[in-house]
Specification:
single chain; alpha+beta; Alpha-Beta Plaits; five-stranded mixed sheet; 25% helix; 40% strand
Length: 93
């Protein structure tokens, strides 16, 4: 099992980016974690699950997002995990 921490820079706050990310992640098989706004204008996403589902999520994050978002840059940090920290995918504050 894998975990990926993603920071997204661009026009990603005030455009329902978190809602679209949560909904996309919830439609992937067994992806858990969170999405939240950061004070510096970025969005942070932490996702846990099987690598193929997480790769689908990261591709969506990089290239799609919400209809009014503009993604300028993403940074990813991948880790192997033995146990999930989250039981569902949430918007956190």
């Amino acid at each position: 099992m894998k975990r990926v921490l993603i920071h997204v820079t661009g026009r990603v706050q005030g455009v329902f980016y978190r809602v679209y990310t949560r909904d996309f992640a919830r439609n992937l098989p067994k992806v858990t974690g969170y999405v939240k706004n950061l004070r510096d204008g970025r969005v942070e996403i932490l996702a846990e699950g099987e690598e193929d589902s997480l790769r689908r999520l990261t591709e969506w994050i990089k290239h799609k997002g919400s209809p009014h978002s503009q993604i300028h840059k993403t940074e990813e940090k991948w880790d192997n995990i033995s146990k999930r920290q989250y039981t569902e995918f949430l918007i956190t504050y």
